[in-house]
Structure to design on (152 residues):
């Protein structure tokens, strides 16, 4: 059985709903996948080493990834370095502005860790709208199924 670590920073009702929808899609379409959901402050080095794939959801905060997400990378990066090569990863960013700096930073971190981003980070930008749920649900389900089936 494969394990997916879903790290979702959800400081608002909208981001919580996004994460819940993504989680529901992963569970529905990949029923044999073991899904572990944590907030960034809960993630430990061992969590990343024990999974077969990571889905990361963060917010843009003052034009950059949230401090909580950055703290997770500050605490875990060296413990993950050279131990996760090729780990499939999927990222979404809830951005009130444009998400550019957050996307660049997370892409750089993923490159340094040698994660295999299955697609560029998805940026859900601007005022919150219902279509965010739909596109994130599709991405989450696709990633979960791909991981479960050994495609990624």
């Amino acid at each position: 059985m494969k394990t997916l670590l879903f790290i979702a920073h959800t400081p608002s009702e909208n981001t919580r709903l996004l994460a819940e929808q993504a989680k529901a899609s992963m569970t529905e379409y990949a029923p044999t996948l073991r899904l572990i959901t944590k907030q960034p402050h809960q993630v430990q080095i061992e969590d990343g080493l024990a999974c077969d794939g990571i889905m990361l959801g963060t917010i843009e905060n003052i034009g950059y990834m949230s401090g909580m997400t950055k703290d997770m990378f500050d605490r875990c990066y060296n413990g993950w370095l050279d131990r996760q090569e090729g780990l499939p990863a999927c990222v979404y960013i809830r951005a009130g502005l444009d998400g550019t700096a957050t996307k660049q930073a997370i892409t750089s971190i993923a490159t340094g860790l040698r994660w295999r981003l299955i697609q560029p980070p998805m940026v859900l930008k601007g005022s919150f709208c219902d279509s965010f749920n739909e596109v994130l649900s599709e991405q989450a389900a696709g990633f979960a199924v791909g991981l479960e089936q050994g495609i990624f």
The two ends are 14 Å apart (CA to CA).
